Request: fold
Amino acid sequence: MQTKKQITSSHYASQNLLTSFQIKANMSTSRRSEERNNNDAHHFFKLILIGDSAVGKSNLLSRFCHNKFTLEFNSTVGVEFTTKTLIIDGTPIMAQIWDASGHTKARAITDAYYRGAHGALLVYDVTRHITFVNTQKWLADLRNHADPNMVVTLVGNKSDVRQSVMVLTEVGKSFAEKESLYFVETSALRATHVEKAFVDLVANIYRNQINRKKDMEAHETMALSRSKCVSISSGNNEPAHYKLKIESFSLLSEAGIEVYESDVFEASGYKWKLEVYPNGSKEEYVNDHISVYLVICDTKNLEKEWEVHVYFKILIYDHIRHNYLTIQGGDGKRTRFHEKKTRWGFRKLISLESFTDAENGYLFGDSCEFGAEVFVVPKYTQRDQCLSMMKPPVTMNTHVWTIPKFSVLKDEPLYSEDFKVGKVKWKLSLYPKGFKTGKNTNLSIFLRPHDVGSDEWKVYAKFKIRVKNQNVAGAHKSEGAVIKLVVYICMHFRSVKVVKT
Reply:
C-alpha cells in the first residue's frame, strides 16, 4: 500500500528552492509509526540512495524490497522511502531506505535527508561515464551535510550491459579505495549483487557501531581508571540505599539547571544526598561529562572534629539490559568525609556521548536512573593481619631425641627438651601407649611450637618424624623401637605473625 503526503517547506522556499515535494512511503501498513512500534527490530538505520538521475536507484530499491523491476523510466519526484527488516549477526535491524531524486534542482531537498542517515549507496551507471564523474560531487555534498561516521558504498549499476560499459570495475574499485568507500557492482535487471549491496551496507553500519561502542567503553574505562574511579562493574542488584529517577533529563539543561540536588536519604546511620550536574561541574572545568557527587548532610549534629569513613558506589541503570553500571570511588579504599570535606564523587562519571547513546540504554525516552550505596566503616579496623613469609633453608634442620628405657614407660606422655629451628622453639611429645584413636595400638608422637611469646602466632612447617630401627644399622623405618627409642625430627618452616593494632 502506498500513502502520499504533500509537504510544503517554507525553509526551502526562502532559499529559492522547490516549495513542495512528494514523499511516497512504500510500506506494509498505512502508518509508518505503527510499523516501527510493532516491529521487533533492535536497531533502526536510515539509509539513503544518491546519484545522478536514471542510474537505476529506484529499481535497485524495488528489486531489493519487492523483487520487482520495471523497464519504463519514471523519474523520482522529491523523495520516497521503503522499510525492510534484516537479520544481521542474529540481530533484527529495521532499515528505512530513502530514494532521492537525482535531478540537480532537487538536490537541495535531499540535503536535508543526509542528516540523521547512517549509511548511503552512492550509485552510478557503468554505461555512462559522466554519472561516475559526478559521484565526486555527490560525495562532497554527503560529507558536507552527513554524519562523519556514515558508512558509504559505491555502487556501479547496470553491470549486465557489458558491451556498453564505459567505467571499468578496476576504475570503480580504485576510486572507492581512495575515498575509503565500500564497492560493489550490481544489476537491478538481473538481481545481481543487489541484496549484497544493501545487506552488506547494513551489516557494516551495525558492526561499526558495535566497534565504536567498545572503543568508547574502553576509553571511558581508561578515563575513569586515571581518576579515582577505578572500580567499574555491572550487575542486576538494585541500589541498596537510594534511587534517583529523572523523567525528563534534557529539561534540566533547557531550564538552565547546572546542578540537581536529590532528596536527603539515610544510609549506615548518616544522612546523605546526591548532586547531579547534567552537563558537568563548571567548578571542575567539565562540560562533556556528567558529574555526580555524594554529600553528607546534617553534620551540625555530629561531634566536634568528626570523621566518617565510607565505601560508596554510584550506579547508572541500563534500561536495555536491565542491569546497573557500578562505579566505586577512592581506588577501592575508604573515603574520608570530615568538616572540611563533606562532598566526594566523580567529576567525570560518564561522558555525555556515551550516556545519551541510545545503544547503551542509560537514557530511555529522556528518562534515566541513578543509584547510591554508602557503607560506613570504622576509622580503624579492630584487627589487622601482617603476613611475614620466610624462605626455607637449603638444608633441613635435624633434631635427635633419644629415649632410654622405653620399654618400661607407662601411659603418661613424655616431653622432649626444647630445641630451636629458625626463630621458633619446638617440643616433641610422645605417648608410649598411643593417643586417642591410636590408644593401645600405636605409638603417637606430636610436634608443637613452644614459647613463641604470644598466642597470636601461626606457624606453617614442613617436617618429618622418623624412628630409628636399631636392629638394622643405618636403616630408618617408621616402626617402634625396643628398649631404647631414637626419634629424628627433620623440618623447615614458614611462619605467619598476627599482630593486634
User: Anything to note?
Assistant: The radius of gyration is 40 Å. The chain is about 20% helix and 35% strand. Confidence is low (pLDDT under 50) at residues 1-39, 224-230, 474-482, 494-501.
